[in-house]
Write a structure and sequence with these properties.
The complex is a heterodimer of chains A (362) and B (432). By secondary structure, chain A is mainly alpha-helical. In chain A, 71% of the residues lie in helices and 3% in strands. In chain B, α2 crosses α12, α2 packs across α13 and α13 packs across α14. The chains are: A mainly alpha (362), B alpha/beta (432).
Chain lengths: 362, 432
């Protein structure tokens, strides 16, 4: 009833090709954007302290959404599994750090977006083996990328400007008079920058996956030999998937350090984080941009919610809850893989379908 | 199923929201503890967190807090993870946090630039950024009682006093991350000056428990002394490997994160003779520790296993709490208020005086070398002593060894200058 598209006629090809052809979806997206741009920056999350809501929930969720979209392009849309996500985020972060130390006066947002290109090049380079190997073997190759890059982050002193602490520390940078990075940057400014970059990148990702390139990725995923026979070049398709995916991941890595953590050691880019991002993709839904939002938000907020619930309802201490949330996420991944392999995105589609026919299910 | 899930999640969100309230009320002192009782370094984290918590619990039970104000100590679990550290910081700073003790170099580095903005000081006791010892550059960060560089200089002094360091070869085995690499500049500066040679044996995080390759090299290089900058699972593995190649244990010195009971217990008898640096006394003989046993552990209010009380890391957590408590008392004296702010706490951390007499009053005579808070010197001129493993517990084998301040000082100044070199907006302070 609420979700009926009856009566909405498309009269031109442009209307047929819209990202959100149904009126209800347009309204829904508009509501989300209004909430994200006009409500959250001023009020945070109702019931939570503003700084906590922004720094511990909203900003990381948005950043990880970019990571998840990036990884989803590779894993969900192209079917190439990667365990090097953490390290590719590191490439973006270190690239941005180097760029801003060479060009301190350049707009930091441009540098963050530019550092994604460094990550894209590195990603495409490590994507080369994918032309020859598949499945488990490719996983091992990307795992090698993870360890090699981690080794570089520790050993190549040039990357962290020979800092005795071995970490990269974010300098203060201003954009149009607003302090955007560094400890003095207001959470609201950082949130809005991250949000805008996410919206920009999500539109790009959405359109890429709907268009010719995205279709060639999906053809490679579904059956690479058939795709090759009808004229999709695996070289360009696979490498472009690696490059685009690494671009997104690199930008999110730069954002993570510059807009959120403020300083980072190699530990923030280790293989455990690579797994975490893969879980976000799997739980959210392989091959779905909407799912990337849901997966990132869920995996990040679930332990926080659980910790608070344990404390306020049952008086269980945080240590126990920490372990409980690890177990719960593990169980959930197994259950979702069995019961709903397409993740939360698929659940949302089922809900939409139910809403469409409600209240007369026949 | 789905409906229930959604209702559950929404309900959860509402309830969590409602439960947020500020802990700060009249005359309380809120001290957050960023602990790690889970994760890769939980073995050490549990002990430190227990010692830290139990000392405050003892003060509350015995003296009713500090200066009449009750201490509210809240733990937040970081799992030694820098991202969770941000979450914990944000969750606790709004409640009137007086000081942060992150117990992780990664989290410390994140918090250093935030401290002046939020006006909450950081006490990174025996870890973090060595350069933070320069109080004029880092007004809000403290590294009492000594930095890594000071510690290394004390270890070198100990070696020099036990057979001389000139002409010797020192093997340096370290965890190959920022923490482990930190003393290298000092070794390189002092090597030519004091006439010793250094052989480096890095151990990657992933090979912490598989060090046979490094120890093969040790066998080849035959260093006269071995010094270790390790943490967690790396320590026991290194000592086991050393025993395997029959490296003389009494020539093997671990730094203060590589010389705890949890590190040596798995090694047991074969680690006999292994030496460790430390700055906080060991054992339960101190009256303050006895008070903790009486008021907290025996009363059933401690999470600690009674067998761990008095251990190296338990006592270190307690020592951390002692410095915090002394600084709070100093801040209360300076401001005349019972309940203080983070900015007052900073003053307290710069003015407290943990003299030998005061240590005696606290029931900690001989526990550590006296430390004095200072505006310019955020290291407090503390000293380390050496302890030796006797197969089942530690014995103190040296008096406190003062660091070579004249050698370490210029390096610290350089490092501090480098830290601020690309941060033109950094706020420093001028002492005197």
């Amino acid at each position: 009833m609420f979700y009926r598209e009856a009566g909405q006629y498309n009269t031109t090809y442009e209307q047929d090709l819209q990202a959100f052809p149904i009126k209800q979806d347009k309204i829904g997206i508009a509501i989300w954007l209004v909430l994200a741009y006009l409500f959250v920056p001023f009020f945070g999350i109702p019931g939570l302290e503003y700084g906590f809501a922004m720094n511990a929930i909203m900003i990381p969720v948005l950043i990880f959404t970019i990571t998840t979209i990036g990884l989803n392009i590779l894993v969900g849309f192209t079917g190439q599994i990667s365990l090097g996500t953490g390290a590719f985020m590191g490439v973006g972060a270190y690239a941005c750090y180097k760029l801003t130390s060479y060009f301190p006066d350049t707009n930091i947002i441009i540098l963050i977006l530019a550092s994604g290109f460094v990550s894209a090049i590195v990603g495409a380079l490590f994507g080369l083996p994918s032309l020859r190997i598949k499945g488990f073997y490719l996983v091992v190759a990307t795992l090698a990328a993870q360890f090699f890059l981690e080794w570089c982050f520790i050993r190549v002193g040039w990357l962290y400007n020979y800092n005795p602490s071995g970490a990269i520390e974010v300098p203060q940078r201003e954009v149009l008079g607003w302090i955007v990075t560094g400890a003095s940057a207001e959470p609201m400014t950082r949130y809005l920058v991250v949000l805008s970059i996410l919206v920009f990148l999500a539109i790009i990702a959405g359109n890429l996956t709907r268009g010719r390139i995205g279709r060639s990725w999906m053809m490679i995923r579904d059956m690479d030999i058939a795709a090759e026979l009808i004229g999709v070049r695996p070289l360009t398709a696979k490498l472009s998937a690696f490059a685009v995916s690494s671009y997104f991941i690199g930008v999110s890595g730069a954002l993570m350090v510059f807009m959120w953590l403020g300083a980072a050691e190699v530990e923030s880019f280790d293989v455990n984080h690579s797994f975490l991002y893969l879980f976000m993709v799997i739980l959210g839904g392989l091959g779905s941009i909407t799912g990337s939002f849901m997966g990132a938000a869920f995996i990040w907020t679930f332990p926080i919610i659980l910790k608070e619930l344990g404390k306020s309802w049952f008086g269980i201490n945080a240590t126990v809850m920490e372990n409980v949330s690890l177990v719960a996420i593990g169980v959930m991944i197994v259950v979702i893989l069995i019961a709903e392999p397409h993740g939360m995105a698929r659940l949302w589609q089922i809900v939409k379908q139910k809403l469409r026919i409600w209240p007369f299910p026949h | 199923m789905l409906k229930k899930l959604i209702v559950g999640v929404l309900g959860a969100a509402l309830v969590t929201g409602a439960s947020y309230e500020t802990a700060k009320a009249e005359d309380t002192l809120y001290v957050p503890s960023l602990s790690y009782r889970t994760g890769p370094f939980a073995g050490a984290g549990v002990q430190i967190a227990n010692g830290f918590a139990d000392y405050f619990a003892m003060l509350n039970a015995r003296d009713g807090g500090i200066g009449g104000a009750k201490i509210i100590m809240e733990e937040c679990e970081t799992a030694y993870n820098a991202q969770k550290g941000v979450e914990c910081y944000e969750a606790t700073k709004g409640k009137g946090a007086l000081v942060y003790n992150p117990y992780s170099t990664g989290i410390t580095l994140q918090l250093i630039p935030k401290a002046p903005v939020d006006e909450i000081p950081i006490l990174s006791m025996g870890y973090g950024l060595s350069a933070a010892a320069k109080g004029e550059t880092f007004p809000w960060t403290f590294t009492y009682p000594a930095s890594y560089w000071s510690q290394m200089s004390s270890i070198l002094k100990y070696i020099d006093a036990n057979g001389g360091v000139k002409g010797k070869k020192i093997g340096f085995i370290y965890l190959d991350v920022g923490y482990g690499k930190e003393p290298i500049p000092l070794l390189e500066a002092l090597g030519p000056k004091m006439g010793f040679e250094v052989a480096y044996f890095p151990v990657g995080v992933k090979e912490m428990q598989a060090q046979s390759a490094q120890w093969l090299n040790v066998r080849k290089e035959r260093p006269d002394w071995m010094v270790m900058w390790g943490f967690g699972a790396m320590n026991a593995s290194a000592i086991k490997e050393a025993a395997k190649i029959r490296y003389p244990m009494d020539k093997f010195i671990g730094n203060w994160w590589a010389a705890a009971d949890v590190d040596l217990r798995p090694v047991g008898e074969s680690g006999k003779g292994y030496i460790g640096a430390n700055f906080s006394g060991i054992g339960t003989d101190f009256p303050a520790v006895q008070d903790m046993i009486k008021h907290v552990v025996d009363a059933g209010n401690s999470k600690a296993d009674p067998a761990d009380v008095g251990g190296v890391l338990y006592n270190r957590g307690m020592f951390n709490a002692v410095i915090v408590a002394e600084a709070i008392a100093a801040a209360q004296n300076a401001t005349g208020k019972k309940s203080i702010t983070g900015a007052d706490m900073r003053v307290g951390l710069e003015t407290f005086d943990l003299s030998a007499a005061r240590l005696g009053e606290l029931g900690l005579a001989g526990f550590t070398a006296p430390i004095k808070g200072d505006c310019a010197d955020h290291e407090g001129a503390g000293s380390v002593f050496m302890q030796q493993w006797n197969g089942s517990s530690w014995d103190q084998i040296s008096d406190p060894i003062a660091p070579m301040t004249d050698e370490v000082g210029p390096l610290l100044t350089d490092a501090a200058a480098q830290y601020v070199s690309d941060k033109p907006e950094w706020k420093t302070q001028s002492c005197n």
